[in-house]
Protein backbone atom coordinates (compact mmCIF):
# COMPACT_ATOMS: atom_id res chain seq x y z
CA UNK A 1 0.00 0.00 0.00
CA UNK A 2 1.16 3.51 -0.77
CA UNK A 3 2.13 5.51 2.31
CA UNK A 4 0.59 8.89 3.11
CA UNK A 5 3.93 10.60 2.43
CA UNK A 6 4.25 8.98 -1.00
CA UNK A 7 0.63 9.70 -1.86
CA UNK A 8 1.17 13.35 -0.93
CA UNK A 9 4.15 13.40 -3.29
CA UNK A 10 1.99 11.84 -6.02
CA UNK A 11 -0.73 14.45 -5.48
CA UNK A 12 1.84 17.23 -5.83
CA UNK A 13 2.90 15.77 -9.20
CA UNK A 14 -0.74 15.48 -10.32
CA UNK A 15 -1.37 19.07 -9.18
CA UNK A 16 1.51 20.16 -11.42
CA UNK A 17 0.00 18.25 -14.35
CA UNK A 18 -3.53 19.63 -13.86
CA UNK A 19 -3.25 22.91 -11.91
CA UNK A 20 -6.59 24.16 -13.25
CA UNK A 21 -8.67 21.00 -12.85
CA UNK A 22 -12.30 21.87 -12.37
CA UNK A 23 -15.83 20.51 -12.72
CA UNK A 24 -16.72 20.20 -16.40
CA UNK A 25 -20.52 20.18 -16.16
CA UNK A 26 -21.94 23.46 -17.45
CA UNK A 27 -24.47 25.27 -15.27
CA UNK A 28 -25.42 28.80 -14.24
CA UNK A 29 -26.84 28.08 -10.79
CA UNK A 30 -26.48 25.52 -7.97
CA UNK A 31 -29.87 24.10 -9.03
CA UNK A 32 -28.66 23.56 -12.60
CA UNK A 33 -25.45 21.98 -11.30
CA UNK A 34 -27.53 19.56 -9.24
CA UNK A 35 -29.65 18.62 -12.26
CA UNK A 36 -26.61 18.25 -14.53
CA UNK A 37 -24.88 16.07 -11.94
CA UNK A 38 -27.94 13.80 -11.61
CA UNK A 39 -27.97 13.48 -15.40
CA UNK A 40 -24.25 12.64 -15.49
CA UNK A 41 -24.62 9.30 -13.66
CA UNK A 42 -23.22 6.64 -16.00
CA UNK A 43 -22.93 9.27 -18.75
CA UNK A 44 -20.16 11.59 -19.89
CA UNK A 45 -20.01 15.27 -18.90
CA UNK A 46 -19.67 16.07 -22.60
CA UNK A 47 -22.92 14.27 -23.42
CA UNK A 48 -24.72 16.03 -20.56
CA UNK A 49 -23.39 19.44 -21.65
CA UNK A 50 -24.83 18.85 -25.12
CA UNK A 51 -28.33 18.26 -23.75
CA UNK A 52 -28.63 20.69 -20.85
CA UNK A 53 -28.73 24.03 -22.78
CA UNK A 54 -32.07 22.94 -24.32
CA UNK A 55 -33.33 21.63 -20.97
CA UNK A 56 -32.33 24.73 -18.98
CA UNK A 57 -33.70 27.10 -21.66
CA UNK A 58 -37.18 25.69 -20.90
CA UNK A 59 -36.66 24.77 -17.24
CA UNK A 60 -34.02 27.04 -15.68
CA UNK A 61 -35.09 26.56 -12.05
CA UNK A 62 -36.96 24.32 -9.63
CA UNK A 63 -40.24 26.23 -10.09
CA UNK A 64 -40.40 25.58 -13.84
CA UNK A 65 -39.07 22.01 -13.75
CA UNK A 66 -41.45 21.00 -10.95
CA UNK A 67 -44.46 21.53 -13.23
CA UNK A 68 -42.84 20.21 -16.42
CA UNK A 69 -44.43 17.61 -18.64
CA UNK A 70 -42.31 14.46 -18.28
CA UNK A 71 -42.57 13.64 -21.99
CA UNK A 72 -41.15 17.07 -22.88
CA UNK A 73 -38.29 16.65 -20.38
CA UNK A 74 -37.56 13.20 -21.84
CA UNK A 75 -37.44 14.64 -25.36
CA UNK A 76 -34.83 17.19 -24.26
CA UNK A 77 -32.52 14.69 -22.58
CA UNK A 78 -33.09 11.58 -24.70
CA UNK A 79 -29.45 11.54 -25.88
CA UNK A 80 -28.36 10.78 -22.29
CA UNK A 81 -28.36 7.17 -21.05
CA UNK A 82 -31.22 6.15 -18.73
CA UNK A 83 -33.07 9.30 -19.78
CA UNK A 84 -36.53 8.05 -18.81
CA UNK A 85 -35.56 7.37 -15.20
CA UNK A 86 -33.50 10.55 -15.06
CA UNK A 87 -36.40 12.66 -16.41
CA UNK A 88 -38.62 11.36 -13.62
CA UNK A 89 -35.90 11.91 -11.03
CA UNK A 90 -35.13 15.50 -11.95
CA UNK A 91 -38.80 16.54 -12.08
CA UNK A 92 -39.45 14.85 -8.73
CA UNK A 93 -36.29 16.48 -7.33
CA UNK A 94 -37.55 19.91 -8.41
CA UNK A 95 -40.94 19.17 -6.82
CA UNK A 96 -39.31 18.12 -3.53
CA UNK A 97 -37.12 21.22 -3.51
CA UNK A 98 -40.29 23.31 -3.69
CA UNK A 99 -42.39 21.34 -1.22
CA UNK A 100 -39.74 20.28 1.33
CA UNK A 101 -36.95 22.83 1.07
CA UNK A 102 -38.60 26.16 0.21
CA UNK A 103 -37.20 26.07 -3.32
CA UNK A 104 -33.58 26.16 -2.09
CA UNK A 105 -30.89 23.47 -2.28
CA UNK A 106 -30.10 22.16 1.20
CA UNK A 107 -26.45 22.70 2.18
CA UNK A 108 -26.35 19.31 3.84
CA UNK A 109 -25.15 15.97 2.49
CA UNK A 110 -27.83 13.85 4.17
CA UNK A 111 -30.68 16.14 3.13
CA UNK A 112 -29.45 16.35 -0.45
CA UNK A 113 -29.40 12.55 -0.61
CA UNK A 114 -33.14 12.49 0.10
CA UNK A 115 -33.69 13.90 -3.41
CA UNK A 116 -34.41 11.32 -6.15
CA UNK A 117 -31.30 10.40 -8.14
CA UNK A 118 -28.96 12.05 -5.64
CA UNK A 119 -26.36 9.74 -4.10
CA UNK A 120 -23.32 10.52 -2.01
CA UNK A 121 -21.16 11.38 -5.01
CA UNK A 122 -23.67 13.84 -6.45
CA UNK A 123 -24.19 15.44 -3.04
CA UNK A 124 -20.43 15.89 -2.59
CA UNK A 125 -20.02 17.41 -6.07
CA UNK A 126 -22.84 19.92 -5.54
CA UNK A 127 -21.77 20.90 -2.02
CA UNK A 128 -18.15 21.36 -3.11
CA UNK A 129 -18.66 23.15 -6.42
CA UNK A 130 -21.79 25.17 -5.65
CA UNK A 131 -21.17 26.08 -2.02
CA UNK A 132 -17.47 25.42 -1.35
CA UNK A 133 -18.30 22.84 1.33
CA UNK A 134 -15.38 20.39 1.53
CA UNK A 135 -15.96 16.85 0.33
CA UNK A 136 -14.37 14.25 -1.91
CA UNK A 137 -16.70 12.83 -4.51
CA UNK A 138 -15.50 9.40 -5.57
CA UNK A 139 -16.43 8.68 -9.17
CA UNK A 140 -15.12 5.96 -11.45
CA UNK A 141 -11.89 7.90 -12.16
CA UNK A 142 -11.08 8.67 -8.53
CA UNK A 143 -11.75 5.05 -7.57
CA UNK A 144 -9.61 3.62 -10.40
CA UNK A 145 -6.67 5.95 -9.76
CA UNK A 146 -6.77 5.34 -5.99
CA UNK A 147 -6.71 1.58 -6.58
CA UNK A 148 -4.00 1.62 -9.24
CA UNK A 149 -1.81 3.67 -6.92
CA UNK A 150 -2.59 1.23 -4.11
CA UNK A 151 -3.82 3.95 -1.84
CA UNK A 152 -6.55 1.49 -0.93
CA UNK A 153 -6.94 -2.24 -1.41
CA UNK A 154 -8.42 -3.43 -4.71
CA UNK A 155 -11.59 -4.63 -2.99
CA UNK A 156 -12.23 -1.26 -1.29
CA UNK A 157 -15.74 0.13 -1.57
CA UNK A 158 -16.42 3.66 -2.82
CA UNK A 159 -17.03 4.70 0.76
CA UNK A 160 -13.68 3.24 1.87
CA UNK A 161 -11.92 5.14 -0.93
CA UNK A 162 -13.63 8.36 0.19
CA UNK A 163 -12.71 7.74 3.85
CA UNK A 164 -9.09 7.05 3.00
CA UNK A 165 -8.76 10.15 0.81
CA UNK A 166 -10.30 12.28 3.54
CA UNK A 167 -7.72 10.90 5.97
CA UNK A 168 -4.65 11.51 3.82
CA UNK A 169 -5.64 14.82 2.20
CA UNK A 170 -6.04 18.00 4.31
CA UNK A 171 -9.69 19.12 4.38
CA UNK A 172 -8.91 22.46 2.72
CA UNK A 173 -7.67 20.55 -0.34
CA UNK A 174 -10.54 18.02 -0.69
CA UNK A 175 -12.48 19.72 -3.50
CA UNK A 176 -9.37 20.58 -5.53
CA UNK A 177 -7.91 17.10 -5.06
CA UNK A 178 -11.13 15.50 -6.23
CA UNK A 179 -11.04 17.56 -9.45
CA UNK A 180 -7.36 16.83 -10.03
CA UNK A 181 -7.81 13.08 -9.57
CA UNK A 182 -10.74 13.16 -12.00
CA UNK A 183 -8.66 15.02 -14.62
CA UNK A 184 -5.75 12.64 -14.04
CA UNK A 185 -8.05 9.63 -14.52
CA UNK A 186 -10.00 11.11 -17.42
CA UNK A 187 -7.06 12.42 -19.45
CA UNK A 188 -3.96 10.49 -18.37
CA UNK A 189 -4.48 7.37 -16.24
CA UNK A 190 -7.39 6.30 -18.43
CA UNK A 191 -9.29 3.05 -17.92
CA UNK A 192 -7.93 1.63 -21.16
CA UNK A 193 -4.44 2.51 -22.36
CA UNK A 194 -3.16 4.57 -19.41
CA UNK A 195 -0.14 6.69 -20.41
CA UNK A 196 2.28 4.81 -18.15
CA UNK A 197 5.30 5.18 -20.46
CA UNK A 198 5.27 8.95 -20.00
CA UNK A 199 3.76 9.09 -16.53
CA UNK A 200 5.62 11.21 -13.96
CA UNK A 201 3.96 9.14 -11.25
CA UNK A 202 5.41 5.86 -12.56
CA UNK A 203 8.13 5.60 -9.85
CA UNK A 204 5.31 5.38 -7.26
CA UNK A 205 3.06 3.05 -9.22
CA UNK A 206 3.40 -0.73 -9.11
CA UNK A 207 0.47 -1.13 -11.52
CA UNK A 208 2.19 1.09 -14.08
CA UNK A 209 5.57 -0.61 -13.58
CA UNK A 210 3.97 -3.98 -14.28
CA UNK A 211 2.26 -2.66 -17.40
CA UNK A 212 5.43 -1.04 -18.76
CA UNK A 213 7.48 -4.22 -18.18
CA UNK A 214 4.87 -6.30 -19.98
CA UNK A 215 4.78 -4.05 -23.07
FE1 LIG B 1 -1.73 5.44 -14.06
FE2 LIG B 1 0.21 4.25 -15.38
FE3 LIG B 1 0.68 6.57 -14.16
FE4 LIG B 1 0.30 4.33 -12.74
S1 LIG B 1 2.01 4.77 -14.13
S2 LIG B 1 -0.58 6.33 -12.35
S3 LIG B 1 -1.23 3.27 -14.00
S4 LIG B 1 -0.70 6.22 -15.90
TrEMBL record:
Annotated Gene3D superfamilies: Helix-hairpin-Helix base-excision DNA repair enzymes (C-terminal), Hypothetical protein, domain 2
One GO term (biological process): base-excision repair, AP site formation
Pfam families tied to this protein: EndIII_4Fe-2S, HHH, HhH-GPD
Cross-referenced HAMAP family: Nth
Cofactor binding remark: Binds 1 [4Fe-4S] cluster.
Family matches, as InterPro entries: DNA_glycosylase, Endonuclease-III-like_CS2, Endonuclease3_FeS-loop_motif, Endouclease-III_FeS-bd_BS, HhH-GPD_domain, HhH_base_excis_C, HhH_motif, Nth
Catalytic activity: 2'-deoxyribonucleotide-(2'-deoxyribose 5'-phosphate)-2'-deoxyribonucleotide-DNA = a 3'-end 2'-deoxyribonucleotide-(2,3-dehydro-2,3-deoxyribose 5'-phosphate)-DNA + a 5'-end 5'-phospho-2'-deoxyribonucleoside-DNA + H(+)
Keywords linked to the UniProt accession: 4Fe-4S, DNA damage, DNA repair, DNA-binding, Endonuclease, Glycosidase, Hydrolase, Iron, Iron-sulfur, Lyase, Metal-binding, Nuclease, Signal
Residues annotated as signal peptide: 1-23
Entry keyword Metal-binding: yes
Biological source species: Pseudolactococcus insecticola
Protein name, entry field: Endonuclease III
Gene Ontology terms for molecular function: 4 iron, 4 sulfur cluster binding; class I DNA-(apurinic or apyrimidinic site) endonuclease activity; DNA binding; DNA N-glycosylase activity; metal ion binding
Amino acid sequence: MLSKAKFTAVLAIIAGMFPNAHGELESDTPFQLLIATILSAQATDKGVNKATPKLFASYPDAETLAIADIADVESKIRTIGLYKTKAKNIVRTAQMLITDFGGELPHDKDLLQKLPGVGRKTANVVLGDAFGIPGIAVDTHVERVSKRLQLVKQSATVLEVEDKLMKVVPEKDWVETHHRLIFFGRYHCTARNPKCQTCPVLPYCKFGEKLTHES
